[in-house]
Design goal:
Helix content: over 70%
Structural class: mainly alpha
CATH topology: Amino acid/polyamine transporter I
Number of strands: 0
Order of helices and strands: HHHHHHHHHHHHHHHHH
Number of helices: 17
Strand content: under 5%
Oligomer: single chain
């Protein structure tokens, strides 16, 4: 009797969306915007999250066999070169992200234990986190669904706990960032706050990862749109709740982006409270679920791109037994490990890697939106189980407004908006890392493309 293949249920798909998209560690940088974060959350939910979710729903349900997700959609519309740029940006964000989260582990453990960890123990903990993620990513998505589901439930739990504690704290002590109505409106002269706007967009990213799980779904054409709609609503609500919890407890000037959740909990319940310990332990667990849930989407894009000679061939290795893109997984582990070693020597922190990761992830999405419009034009006869509402001018607004927001957010994250010493010191490391990795990607793609053309010519 043939072994029954495990499949993602709709419930699994919704939890996967929540685990991928809801990023607990990004709640603190968003809260660092101050009271105006609520204005930006609501505005960007309307102007970015809704069109982005609908466009991914259409592309994912229209092309369910495109295991490379965003890479394949852009390739269909604009060809190999533009898709190669997407693949590089989409892939390189992941080892940067893993490394940044690895740096959070030792500092959080030090806070929980009261003991400062040395460089070597910290590095060992960071490497353990990285390679556990790598080894778990060798399993099929449906086999590791339990970890992703647990991660999603725990993430939602953290958000709700932060919101409840924030409400209780505010009712007793008031709002730590209290101000008049003007403080809830955007302040374009506050370049520090504008820097963190990209965090809100980043907090919405990841819906397209679900499109890489189509082989594990019973009916992807129906499940993808339903999961994105249900998951998107839940994510928006939980983000607002968790942002409120952190925002009322910590004055913006005292908030640190890498330990904001911990700082808020310490203020609201005390750093010796069982709630403080439990939530921080749960937070660390969710980091594993978050990286595992993202790994398949990123690794499939990298593997598909490697097959097209846009990334090194070893990244295209797929395990013949499991069908998993293990070559990309191992590459992630090696690169992230090197980044942690460099961090141990140079001392650059969580935010530098995290911000550089955001730059590349946002850049990867820029071609996806115009690709959606072009596919509507060049492939009009393909059945679309879900279709973005609107046409003409409205459809163009739904497509290009998110592109403008992505580009502005990249600039606000990495480019110094003034010449003050603080601004330059804060952003130059991010800009330097981003430029170096962009140049490396362009050179790599040029070399690989040349080899591809030579190989094609030799076979003629």
């Amino acid at each position: 009797m043939a072994e029954k293949t495990k499949k993602f249920s709709l419930f699994d798909a919704i939890l996967n969306i929540i685990c991928v998209v809801f990023v607990a560690e990004a709640a603190a940088p968003a809260a660092a915007i101050g009271n105006s974060q609520y204005f930006w959350w609501i505005l960007l939910i309307i102007t970015f999250l809704l069109p982005y979710g609908m466009i991914v729903s259409e592309l994912g349900s229209t092309y369910p066999d495109d295991e490379g997700g965003v890479y394949d959609w852009v390739k269909r519309a604009f060809g190999r070169k533009v898709a190669g740029f997407v693949a590089w940006c989409y892939w390189v964000n992941f080892p940067l992200w893993i490394a940044s989260l690895a740096l959070v582990f030792p500092s959080t453990i030090s806070l929980l234990t009261g003991n400062e960890l040395g460089v070597v123990p910290s590095l060992l903990i960071e490497l353990a986190f990285i390679w556990i993620v790598v080894f778990v990513s060798f399993s099929k998505a449906s086999d590791s669904a339990w970890l992703v589901n647990i991660g999603a439930i725990l993430k939602v739990g953290i958000g709700i706990v932060l919101g409840i504690l924030g409400f209780m704290y505010m009712s007793k002590y008031g709002n730590a960032n209290a101000g008049d109505a003007s403080t809830y409106l955007p302040n374009f002269s506050d370049t520090n706050s504008l820097t963190y706007l990209s965090i809100i967009l980043f907090n919405f990213m990841g819906f397209e990862v679900l499109a890489t799980y189509t082989d594990d779904m019973e009916n992807p054409a129906r499940q993808i749109p339903k999961a994105i709609i249900a998951g998107g609503i839940a994510i928006a609500v939980v983000y607002l709740i968790s942002a409120f919890g952190i925002g009322v407890a910590i004055p913006v000037e005292d908030l640190t982006v890498d330990s904001g959740i911990t700082d808020a909990l310490a203020v609201m319940v005390g750093d010796t409270s069982p709630i403080f310990v439990i939530v921080n332990i749960v937070f660390l667990i969710t980091l594993f679920g978050n990286m595992v849930s993202w790994s398949l989407g990123v690794n499939m894009v990298a593997a598909e791109s490697a097959k097209d000679h846009q990334l090194p061939s070893f990244m295209g290795f797929v395990d013949p037994k499991t069908g998993m893109p293990n070559g990309a997984s191992i590459t992630n582990g090696v690169v992230a490990s090197v980044l942690c070693l460099i961090s141990a020597v140079t001392g650059f922190d969580f935010w530098v890697l995290f911000a550089a990761q955001i730059v590349f992830l946002l850049l990867a999405y820029v071609p996806m939106f115009p690709a959606f419009l072009k596919l509507r034009k060049i492939d009009p006869d393909t059945k679309r189980p879900f279709k973005v509402p609107g046409n003409g001018g409205l459809l163009k607004v739904e497509t290009y407004l998110p592109v403008v927001l992505l580009i502005l957010s990249v600039i606000a994250t990495a480019v110094p908006l003034n010449t003050t010493a603080d601004e330059l010191e804060y952003k130059m490391p991010i800009l330097e890392i981003s430029l170096v990795l962009l140049v490396v990607g362009i050179v790599l793609m040029a070399v690989l493309h040349k080899k591809y053309l030579e190989a094609e010519k030799a076979t003629e």
